[in-house]
């Protein structure tokens, strides 16, 4: 097997640097926008109205997100890669944890919806 040349190594290193820089800039811009929007929502009283009227959307959906993530990570740590078959489809590799997370998330959100008392 041929050893990569220094030019190829430089290209890979530069590509990794540019990708990391762009991701960092994107995350910083998104964080700045999020912080400014949350600040405006808090000072304008919008956040308290949203929490009062849409508590399930404000708190239960993020809880479902984190719960599904923790479940998938625990299964991956304790049992290795997540692979399963569902309705004749086989999920393995990167698709296994992703599809399993989506299923867990949707089931947890559905459970919150079924337990929620709706105003009529």
Protein described:
The protein has 120 residues and is mainly alpha-helical. It has 2 domains: 12-53; 55-115. Helices cover 78% and strands 5% of the residues. The chain contains 4 helices and 2 strands. A two-stranded antiparallel ribbon has the order 1-2. A hairpin with a 2-residue loop joins strand 1 (84-86) and strand 2 (89-91). Helix 3 packs antiparallel against helix 4 (95-115). It is flat. The protein starts with 5 loop residues before the first helix and ends in a 5-residue tail after the last helix. The model has no long low-confidence stretch (mean pLDDT 80).
What's the gist of this structure?
This protein has 120 residues and is mainly alpha-helical. It is built from 4 helices and 2 strands. The chain has 2 domains: 42 residues; 61 residues.
Topology of helices and strands:
Elements: H1 6-44, H2 46-53, H3 55-79, E1 84-86, E2 89-91, H4 95-115
Antiparallel strand pairs: 1-2
Helix pairs in contact: 2-3, 3-4
On the 0-100 scale, what is the average pLDDT?
80
Tally of contiguous helical segments:
4
End-to-end separation in angstroms reads 70 Å
The succession of helices and strands, N to C, reads: HHHEEH
Characteristics:
mainly alpha; 5% strand; two-stranded antiparallel sheet; 120 residues
